[in-house]
Amino acid sequence: MRENSGAGGFKAIIFDMDGTLLDSKSAFIKQLEDFFTIHHVNGVNKTSITKLVGKNYHDIFQEVFDGVDAEQEKQWIDWMNYSYRFYYINKFARLFPGALRCIRRLKAQGFKVGVATNAPKIILEYFMSKYEFEQMGIIGVSGDDVERKKPYPDMLLKLMKQLDCKPDSTIYVGDMDIDVRAARAASIPSIAVLTGLSDITAIESEHPDVIAPSIEWVCNMITSSSS
Question: What pLDDT sits at residue 79?
């Protein structure tokens, strides 16, 4: 398959996972609801839990629990990652409409595709396997694969090296303000989709190159420009 140069001469498209390709908000909310119920946390409702979605487990525990010790927190985080991988992501998370079709179209037209997520490696590996991304030659980098997670550029720089692409031929697509900051730090253009966890005010404040309503819209823009 020949390598493509699409809109603006781009050859590689890197996607965030949660909120961009994967609609996982319900999975996170359900997991946190169950965890807080098990641990008898009072004063927490669905509205307050929704505000926690998108934060890492360490920050959530520090915010909700008073004085949790490091060993207890580690046990909780290990349990959260394990239960999310083997139950919540499978039962409550789904690809956004058109996401898989988008990836297949990009690959069919010769684009290089990568996935960059702050999620642990165990979650990324499940995602890549479940939706057969690995079989399509898509490369993924997780938060465990780099020293610094987004908004630092480390995983985007790592992916560009693995995809053998330079910043001026790469686009990054994400749903949060930290995605836009990571792209800027890596010197690559950013597309922010409005399907995830950041509201439009937070996204606009970071000045992405494009704001898009959905992953399907992004795919149509890129593939039609390369035709």
Answer: 95
